[in-house]
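User: Before I run my own analysis I want an independent prediction to cross-check against. Here's the chain; please return only the structure tokens and, at the end, one sentence I can use as a sanity check.
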Amino acid sequence: MIALTYRINLIEPALLTALDGEPNSAVSQDFLPGSALRGAVIAALLRGDPKADLTRFFSSAVRFLNGYPAVSEDYEARRSLPLPNSLRQDKYAKDVRTAYDLAAGPLPAATDGSSPQWKNAGGGFALYEENGTARKIPVRRQVTIHTARDRQAGRATATEGAVFHYDALAAGQAFAGVVLCDTEKDADLVEPLLWEIQRVGGSTRGGYGAVRVIEVERTQEWSEHSFAPAAAGERQAVLLLSDTLVRDENGQLVVTAEALTASLGAAADADAFLVENIVGGFNRTWGLPLPQSVAVQHGSVLVLPPDTLGPDAIARLEREGVGERRAEGFGRVAIAALRNVWNIEAEENTPSRPEPVTLERGSRDGKLALLIARRIQAGRTETEVRTDVVNITNLRRNDLNSSQISRLREVIRRELQKKEPNPDCVTRFIDSLRQTARNQFEKARVGTDPLRNWLAKQVEGRRQLPDAPIIGALTFTATEEEERRTRLLYIDAVLARMAKQKEDR
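Assistant: Structure tokens:
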């Protein structure tokens, strides 16, 4: 078996619709389903070869596992796994991190003899450590309100204008996926296509689904989990790492311990902590939703008697999975020993951090990086100028005529069009006016200063520009020309605000 592991970051919100919410809404799942990732790989293949053979993608020889939340550690993203639904926590305990596994045995009693109130601590995803710590990763979501519009009018109309909302996975999160291939030929086909994944999920033309694949690695020494195996004579816990579709003896999809045990190839009675889930999908070729099916939800736990499954059977089940639709990531299992107490900690879901790069200042990439830094600084400067103008508390126009403000602003605009603008143009303009017009600039106020004195301070002074970001170890330094240009922009913005005031008569 060859495993292709990859990391994927959400550039835009992702909408992987689950069967949830009201009719005028769409609620995304908390992970990237294997079916959606398989569809993205097939789309990449068809872009290069519209008549490509897709047979291998619909067999269990190539299995696209779900993309689960990941955390970047030392430039490597660890793939999380579902938390068992059998975990319980004391609702009013001071130590909110301790959880007990109901599958391992009865829950403990309180020290004072009372009966604790237990709450479900399962659900969600976590990174598991060998010491029994589960670092739970929250999945951030983004809710956006939309309005339907008429295709011909291009806007909402009286007949087409329903309001709906999307509850999607928020952008900026990292996920880790795996593709399992039985042969080298299949791995050679899929590996380059993973790099070409561009979008996943629905509404990809409406600002959703843009992703970036960070790294693809091939390995044959891959294990989906690191749980300790059950020792001889100990009960075996089966944790479902993905939704699982199993049928009973009548061929019906069910959520029962008997059907799940039979799919494992075991005939023993088992304790079960199962959660039901309804799964579906959408076929873009048909343009129709897929039939809805009942499934055993990921995180469900099945407890088998000791030594029910041998090492060879465990290895086969964890490698191939159980049930139906295994090519889409369904039916993944982990078979391990039970643990009575878990320590649950919170963790952040952050994008995988790329390795730092160093650019040469004279290279093509270095010039582009400096251009980006310059434009970022220009945006920060513009924001700072606007804030400073708004924060001026005492701005009085008094008898200053609108025509005088317009004439000075026109002089500033012409100066800004020059390659090397000079703020002295403001002083020259004031000095060229007649005494009556200069008196108007004396009566106007900026703070406690007459407008004429305030203009002189701006012309003679210097303005501290905001810092530019460091990109590729390159630092952008603003020039004298940019500092003078900023002073002129600030003066023009103050005059623009003053021009909106009514002239005192």
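Sanity check: The chain has a mean pLDDT of 86.
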